[in-house]
Design a protein that fits this description.
CATH architecture of the largest domain: Up-down Bundle
CATH topology of the largest domain: Dehydroquinate synthase-like, alpha domain
Number of strands: 9
Helix content: 40-55%
Distance between the termini: 38 Å
Structural class: alpha/beta
Bound molecules: fe (ii) ion
Largest sheet: 6 strands, parallel
Radius of gyration: 20 Å
CATH class of the largest domain: Mainly Alpha
């Protein structure tokens, strides 16, 4: 077995880490930054702190705010036009996954002709960018600050696709997550859990990605509920910020699989938050993988600190893991698809899209449209 491990971007981590941003961007030789952010980034205080640090270091800032969840291609084109017009030499994303992914995608347009649609039409495309991209995370879930993937929402076909852009530098300051609302805390934390657990059961996992993902799972089960119930608990927020970051590095190496295919399909059909979709899908994604990866299910169950007797089958382990995940979801008042009023037949109609999603190919069992329909039905019925 051969495998490759790396870390895409240096990470500055810790309470107050945001104050280092300006000096680090200056050290990159940059003079003018396009700051790409969302309402959550502003509410966290991260935007004001980031711009304050940049300006104190003599970096001029051009603001591009108002990035919405699942940012459409048009937003990225607008940001690209602004960046070119203003002749910026650095992109700084501040916020959750949509802002960080938008920042990464906008970087493409600084040196490659737009619109961004050219790069997401048929399949994920790797593009070499030359303008530094610095990612400041204000949620603990996406991991986008350390992944080389940017999700682009293809409004032309109502689907998500990826472009590959590697961040230059990541800043993870858990103080910026202290005011994250309860629902976003749950959704983003469960996204991180999905990254970790799916990466472990992917065909492309390695000892390095497993190490990070298992540590992330332990931290998530030890701290996510505390973050939800005591939002101002900096110690728990710090552990979750680390977990999210490590899960990001893990899935960047190992990929995610059918859980994220299921989540993407739900996002297209119902426009529900990514982390919520991932959480609903995760138990069934792991159950699908269990027959081919029982040893990995055991590692996940151990990281969740589930009581095990030894000798359990993959299916038994998957059932225990599913119970643990759903218990965590219930404790944070995460609603089911049924409770949200979604029609079961509309959920099942996502099967074709799930099977076609390239991420499904990383599941250790083949995801046919029939298998996908079964997983969607279980997602609807089992939670
Ligand atoms: Fe995700």
């Amino acid at each position: 077995m051969t495998f490759e491990y790396r870390q895409n971007a240096p990470v500055i981590f810790g309470a107050g880490a945001i104050s280092a941003l300006g000096g680090r961007v200056k050290a990159l030789g940059c003079k003018k930054a396009l700051c790409v952010y969302d309402a959550g980034g502003e509410a966290s205080g991260g935007v004001a702190k980031a711009i304050g640090s940049l300006e104190a270091a003599g970096i001029a800032c051009v603001r591009f705010g108002g990035v919405r969840p699942d940012a459409p291609m048009e937003t990225i084109d607008e940001g690209g036009e602004l960046g070119l017009r203003e002749k910026v030499d650095c992109i700084v994303g501040i916020g959750g996954g949509s802002s960080l992914d938008s920042a990464k995608a906008i970087a493409i347009l600084m040196t490659h002709p737009g619109p961004i649609k050219r790069y997401v039409l048929a399949r994920p495309i790797a593009v070499k960018t030359e303008v530094p991209v610095v990612c400041v995370a204000t949620t603990a879930g996406t991991g986008s600050e350390v992944t080389h993937v940017a999700i682009v929402n293809r409004t032309d076909v109502n689907a998500k696709w990826s472009v590959f852009v590697t961040p230059t530098l990541a800043v993870v300051d858990p103080e910026l997550t202290l005011t994250l609302p309860k629902r976003e805390t749950a959704n983003t934390g469960l996204d991180a859990l999905s990254h970790a657990a799916e990466s472990i059961t992917c065909t492309a996992s390695s000892p390095h990605s497993d190490l990070l993902a298992l540590a992330a799972i332990r931290k998530i089960f030890d701290n996510l509920y505390t973050c939800w119930s005591e939002p101002g608990n900096l110690a728990a927020r710090t552990e979750m910020a680390l977990a999210s970051n490590w899960a990001g590095i893990a899935f960047d190496e190992a990929m995610c699989h059918v859980g994220h295919s299921l989540a993407d399909a739900l996002s297209s059909a119902f426009h529900t938050p990514h982390g919520y979709n991932c959480a609903i899908a995760l138990p069934e994604a792991l159950a699908a993988a269990a027959p081919a990866a029982p040893d990995k299910l055991r590692l996940i169950a151990e990281a969740m600190r589930l009581p095990l007797k030894g000798g359990e089958s993959g299916e038994e382990l998957a059932a225990a893991v599913a119970g643990g995940i759903r218990g965590l979801m219930r404790s944070m008042e995460v609603k089911s698809l049924r409770e949200q009023g979604f029609d079961r037949s509309r959920v099942l109609a996502c099967a074709g899209e799930v099977a076609e999603n390239h991420l499904s190919s990383y599941c250790p069992v083949k995801i046919t449209p029939q298998v996908a329909e079964t997983l969607l039905a279980r997602m609807y019925d089992n939670y």
